[in-house]
């Protein structure tokens, strides 16, 4: 298929969708939300109950969701590692986009952050009692990543 025919096809499809009442923006939005909800093992009723339990707000920052806002379903990735899929048992809550991204970073880097913070506390405590120099107890980054901790 040539680039010109692909472009003609794109314009034709866009025009067809614009004139099709079944393809209204409201219907697409509703279908998209329904698809996203069911892919996480939830029914629309369960999603609405979860939304109500969270006072129609993000589970982390508690900022109220706005009409039409994309709501992320948070789930335990260790239980269901497939992207955008989960069983209904590992759903943890609903989040705004920013909190969903932040939580993903926190989960992936939690072990490193915990070691860093613990080693900082230990080195700070050692300095308070007069011990200086590098902290020989804190594991290296590679020890944390590769699980070489003894």
Q: Provide the gyration radius in Å.
A: 24 Å
Number-wise, the strands total 2
Number of helices: 5
Major β-sheet, in short? 2 strands, antiparallel
Globally, the shape reads: extended
* Terminus-to-terminus distance: 60 Å
Descriptive notes:
Helix content is 53%, strand content 6%. It is extended, with a radius of gyration of 24 Å. The chain is mainly alpha-helical.
Concise overview:
It is built from 5 helices and 2 strands.
Record keyword descriptors for this entry.
extended, mainly alpha, two-stranded antiparallel ribbon, 53% helix, 2 strands, 150 residues, His-Me finger endonuclease fold, 2 domains
What's the helix and strand layout?
Layout: H1 3-19, H2 25-39, H3 44-53, E1 72-75, E2 91-95, H4 97-128, H5 141-146
């Amino acid at each position: 298929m040539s680039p010109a025919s692909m472009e003609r096809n794109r314009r034709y499809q866009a025009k067809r969708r614009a004139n099709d009442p079944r393809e209204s923006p409201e219907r697409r939005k509703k279908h998209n939300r329904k698809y996203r909800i069911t892919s996480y093992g939830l029914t629309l009723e369960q999603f609405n109950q979860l939304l109500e339990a969270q006072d129609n707000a993000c589970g982390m920052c508690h900022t109220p969701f706005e009409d039409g806002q994309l709501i992320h379903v948070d789930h335990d990735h260790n239980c269901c590692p497939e992207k955008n899929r989960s069983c209904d048992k590992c759903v943890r809550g609903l989040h705004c986009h920013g909190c969903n991204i932040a939580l993903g970073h926190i989960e992936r880097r939690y072990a490193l952050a915990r070691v860093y913070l613990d080693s900082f506390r230990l080195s700070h405590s050692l300095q308070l009692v007069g011990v200086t120099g590098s902290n020989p107890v804190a594991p290296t980054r590679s020890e944390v990543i590769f699980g070489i901790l003894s």
